[in-house]
Amino acid sequence: MELRHLRYFIAVAEELHFTKAAERLHIAQPPLSQQIQQLEAELGVKLFHRQTKRQVQLTAAGKVFLQEAYQLLMQLETAVALTQKIGRGETGQLRIGFTSLVIYDLLPLILREFRQQFLEVELVLRELTTSQQEQALRDSRIHVGFAHPPLEDDTLSYQCIHRQTLVVALPSTHPLAQQEHICVRSLLSEPLIMFPRYLAPGLYDRIMSLFQQGNFPPNITQEAIQMQTIIGLVSAGIGVAITPSSLQNLQRSGVVYLPILEEVPVIETAVIWQQGNLTPIVENFVQFTQKFI
Predict the structure, then answer these.
(1) Which of 92, 162, 172, 267 is the most exposed place for a label (fewest CB within 10 A)?
(2) Is the dihedral angle over the CA atoms 270, 112, 99, 246 positive or is it negative?
(3) Strand 166-171 vs strand 255-259: parallel, antiparallel, or unpaired?
(4) Are residues 110 and 292 in contact, defined by beta-carbon separation less than 8 angstroms?
(5) Mean pLDDT of 215-223
(6) CA–CA distance, 252 with 237 (Å, rounded to integer)
């Protein structure tokens, strides 16, 4: 039994006339009659009562088979449509890794617009460090990530989509808070709040390079894992912090952000993925992020 048998049967069942059904199917009437006879022979039952040479009526078995044929073709159409959508990357699940930095400016905008365009894509988000995202990509626990180069794994593909600078976060009551710019050397004796290096080695090293350029060591007195925790500690007067400029969107009472006078390294945010696992939905997402460059 082939699909054409079902389609031919449905046409005859709806027209109840072989000539009209053949015209509807754009085939000759004799081949249509032969196909219906083949179908009846395979099923071992009569599907039609022949009232005249051309006009027919459905048997009881034919009426049941017609309803089942409708269901089969409907399921096939659904399967075809779903398969085509998946092939075009328009439906399915997309697991996205992201660092805490991108949540303050870039990620919400991208996700909001992507969801509007791809309504049937399920987004699953996981907050991970850059290193954790690299491992998660290798383990196929995420499909794509928002991380900060340089990457440790040079087999991963990435595309930089955003660049930002570094700023100093100070308690609003700090004597330096009234200045327009901050010189790194003025932080020489200031208690510095930092995150552990293993969380984001690239970002950590870029911040430390400011002190290396000035040829003096940083006075790190407190570590915190989350950026919002670091800013909270600044607000409490525990110390100062050097953070990416996107943290300025995290408005916290008692904290001011000032630009750094010296030339500062650029902090990049990149979309990262495994080229070998570039499915249509991942390809759509990567291409979609390019509009935000």
Answers:
(1) 172
(2) positive
(3) antiparallel
(4) yes
(5) 94
(6) 13
